[in-house]
Design a protein that fits this description.
globular, mainly alpha
Length: about 200
Amino acid sequence: MPADSSAELQQLIDRFPSGDSAVRRELLARSFDRLRRLTAKMLGESFPRLQAGHDLDSVVNETWIRLVRALEQTSPGTVQEFFGLAAHKIRQVLLDMARKQTRLDRQNERELMVADSGGDSALQQDTHNPLRLSMWTEFHARVPNLPDDERQMFEMHYYLEVPQVEIARLMNITPRQASRLWVSALERLTEGFAEVEEFV
């Protein structure tokens, strides 16, 4: 059985109430590869423009620090809860980086407008990516505000890639109810966006 299998990780999570810091360290060590893959997916699919200034390891390292701090304050009861917490921390790191990037983009746009007051072709060529980054930033920033059942559905299906049928079993609902939760979550997250197909 792989060291990072759900069964192995659940055994460590079951030992969390003991307060043994060695258990926390072992859980993080065994789940590192899965955390790295999860971070790569979120960075590549939702925040590709950040890759120009932030490599995968820098995002993983910052997430690791925040996750360690969080685990000192809370004890997830299941593997799904643990990776849900991890996804939340990854999202926080990427959103913070995206906001900084947006500020830089706006500063660069102002500088372009001053330097090229005779035309706006350079500015027009650079507007697509910042807009897309801004939309993705808003999209992920809305996730914590979803109703609990929709948030749980979205995080497990989108971030953790758990099949909807399996999520339905975990949430003790029917597959049709799970599908409705997914659609409802997407509707809330994309409300007001002109190009919804980017997020589906």
